[in-house]
Amino acid sequence: MPRGTDRGLTDTFFYDNKIVRDFGIATVFWGIAGMLIGVIIAFQLANPDVNMGNQYTTFGRVRPLHTNAVIFAFVGNAIFMGVYYSLQRLCKTRMYSDILSKINFWGWQLIIVSAVITLPLGITTSKEYAELEWPIDIAITLIWVVFGWNMFGTIAKRREKHMYVAIWFYIATFLTVAVLHIVNSYEMPVNFLKSYSGYAGVQDALVQWWYGHNAVAFFLTTPFLGLMYYFLPKAANRPVYSYRLSIIHFWSLIFIYIWAGPHHLLYTSLPDWAQSLGVVFSVMLIAPSWGGMINGLLTLRGAWDKVREEPVLKFMVVAVTAYGMATFEGPMLSLKNVNAIAHFTDWIVAHVHVGALGWNGFLTFAMLYWLFPRLYKTQLHSKKLANAHFWLGTLGILFYAIPMYWAGFTQGLMWKQFTAEGTLQYSNFLETVLQIVPMYYLRGIGGVLYLGGVFLMVYNLIKTAKSGSLVANERTEAPVIVPSISNNAGHWHSWIEKRPTQMAIFATVAIMIGGLVEFIPAFVIKSNVPTIASVKPYTSLELQGRDLYIKEGCVNCHTQMVRPFRSETERYGEYSKAGEFVYDHNFLWGSKRTGPDLHRVGGKYPHSWHYHHMMDPTSMSPGSIMPAYPWLFEQDVDLSTTEDKLKTLKKLGVPYEDEYIANANEELMKQANGIAADLKKEGIEVKPEAEIVAMIAYLQRLGTDIKVKETQE
Prior knowledge:
The chain is mainly alpha-helical. It is built from 26 helices and four strands. The strands form two sheets. Strands 1-4 form a two-stranded antiparallel ribbon. A two-stranded antiparallel sheet has the order 2-3. Helix 2 (59-91) packs antiparallel against helix 3 (98-118) and helix 14 (346-375) runs antiparallel to helix 15 (383-416).
C-alpha cells in the first residue's frame, strides 16, 4: 500500500462490518426479549394471574429483568452497533483490534445471559438499574474496559485528525459510565451470590440516584446523541445545523447532568441542601437538552420532503421529538410542587417510557433500517413495511403513555384528597388501585402494538439481508494523513478536537465536579444524617426476612419512605427520619407505589394478617393485584448464611456484638419460635424456620424504632 503524508497518497484498508452486523442481530434479539417481558409484566399489574403462580415469574422478580434487558441488552447492543460502525468511518480506520471487538461482543452477551439467569432466581441487590450481583458487576467493568480500550485505540490510530462531535459524546459516555458503575457498585460480598452495599440509608440513596439518573443520562442519552449527530445528517444527506451549538450542547450537558440525581429524592430524608441542588441543576438541564433537539431537527432543513418518503427519517424525527419532550418533562417533574403530586405514581412510568420507546427505541430502529442495506449492499426489502412499523410503534407509544399519564394524575390526586371534615377521602389505598386497572390493560395493549412493529422490522431486515450479501470487510481508501476537514478548523474549540487525551481529561473533570460536591458533605458532615439512639440493628431473623423481601422484589411495588405531607402522615404514620436508615444496607426507599408505603407497617396488623395476606392477598384486601407467595410457606430460611451476613455487616459498621454473631441462629430460632407460637394461638400451624416467619418478623419491625423516645447523639 502506498504511503505518504501530504502528497495525496492513499492507504487502502477495510472496515469491519461483521462486528456491526453481530451487534445489530443482538440488538434485535434482546429487544424482542426485553419488550416481550415488558408486555408480560404490564398485564401482571392488571391481573395477578399473569404472574403464573411460581416464584420465578412474579412481577417483583421479572420487572428488573425487563429493565436490564431493555437498557443494557437492547440499548446497550444498539450503542455498540452504532459506535463500531460510525467510529471507523469518522476516524477513517478499522477498529483497533478485531479480537477486542469480539471479546466486547461475546462478553456483553454473556453478561446479559447471567442477568437472565440470576434475576428470576431472586439474586439481586435491589438497587434500581444496578440489580446485578458483584461477580457480574466485575464482568461488566472488564468488558467496559475492553470497549474503551478498543475505542481509544481506534481514535489513537485515526487518519482524520479532527474528532467529530459524535466522538466527543462516545468519550464522555465511556468515562462517565465507568465512574458511575464503579462508585455505585461498591459492595461487600457475603458469598458468591450475595453482597451488601458499602453505603447505608441516606448515603446509599444519594449514591444510587446519582447513578440511576446518570445511567439514564450517560447510557440512554449521551451515546444516542453521538449517534444522532452521525446518523441523522447521513440519512438526511445534510450537514449538522450548527457546529457551534453542538459544542455548547456537549459541554453544558455533561457538566449539568451529573448534579441532577437528587431530584429523585425530593421530600425524602435526604438533606434539603442536596435536594435543592438537584432541583436547580435539573431546571438548568432543559437548555442543553433542547439545544441538542433543535440541532437535530434543524439539520433536516431542506430535507422535510424526504421525511414523507423515507421511514428512516420518520423514525428519527419522532425520536428527536420524544427526546425533547422527555427532557422538558424531566425538569418540570423536578419542581417540588409538581414532584409532590407525580412522584411514586405512574406519571413517572409514562415519562420514562416516552424517552425509552420514543428516543432510544425509534432511533435504534432508524439505525437498523439505515445500516442493514449498507452492510449487505442492497436495498431495504420494503419501505411500506417500515412505514407500517413506524405507525404501529407510534400508536404503541400513545396507547402506552396516555393511560399511564391518566393513571398517574389519578393516583396523585386521589392520594391527597381530603373530605370537608378533614379526613382522607380515599383512606383505603386499594380504592386508587382499582381505579387505574383499566389503564394498565391499555398500557399492555400499547406494548403489544409496539412489539408488533418490531416483528415487522425483523421480517423486513431478514428479507433485506437475504437479498444481498454481507460485506464483512468493506474496502476503502483514505489519505495517510488527513488535515482537519471541519469548517470550524480555526475555531477556539478546534485545538481540543484533535487531542483525545485532553478531551478525556476535561470531560472527566466536568462530570466529577457535581458528584464530589454532593458526596463529600453527605459523607463527611455527620449532621446530614442525625442518629437516633432507639434505632438498633436488625435481629438475625429480621435480617433474613429483609433479604427475602429484597429477593422477591417487593421494593418494586412498595416504598419505605413516608414523606412529610399531611396526606401521607394521615395514611401511613409519622414521616421518615434520616437516622432510621443508618443500618440499611441497601436502602429500600423504592420509586413507585403500586401498593401502599410500608415504612410504618410494623405492629399495624397481627402476625396472622401478614400470613394470610402473603398466602392470598385478596383474602385480606379484596381486589388486590398483588400475587400470592405460597413458596414462602414451603421453603426454609437458609440458616447457613446468617453468621456470614452479620459478619459482613459488622465490617460495614453495623454494631453487632461478636457474641450475638456467634449465636445468631439460636437467636433467630428463639424469635421465630415466638412468632410461630403466636400464630398457633390463632389456629395457624407453621414451621419456625419457614421463610414466611422471617418475612413476618421483618415486616413487623418496620418503622417501630422511633416509637421509643428519640434522643439525638
